[in-house]
Amino acid sequence: MNFMSNKVNVIPCSGMGKVHGLLAREMALKVVQELCPDISQTECLAYIVTGDQEVGNKIQSGQCITIDGCPLMCAAKSVNHAGGVIAQELRVLDALKSYRGVKPGTATALNEAGWKIVDETAEKIAMQVKEIYGEE
Ligand code: SF4
Fold this sequence. Notes:
Blueprint: E1 8-12, H1 19-35, E2 40-41, H2 45-49, H3 53-61, E3 64-68, H4 74-81, E4 86-91, H5 92-96, H6 112-133
Parallel strand pairs: 1-2, 1-3, 3-4
The structure holds iron/sulfur cluster.
């Protein structure tokens, strides 16, 4: 299937109750709303899990980047189950390796350090989105 010029799906896990899930969601939103609004899109993970046909078609229409908050990899597993093609499986824990000892905030609110992690990681994800989309 030719995915060229189809929007890249950036799908974070839901990760309620963990700062890692909040980081994943904020990273995805930063990419699709601010950095790559014309070439990327996202969907609520729960909507994907429930097997909605319209969302399934959207997921299958372009390549996907998943962002997971823990090793259970809910976003990657759900997108895979929905028939999506995953170009990149990102783990928040991997991103945090560059910020050893930094406390990014709580499950409900990021602090300044947390937003810095979101901004810097989202920039890297945006570069991957552009590469996958075919802009670079
Ligand atoms: S990957 Fe981990 S943090 Fe994210 S939704 Fe699943 S269990 Fe929660």
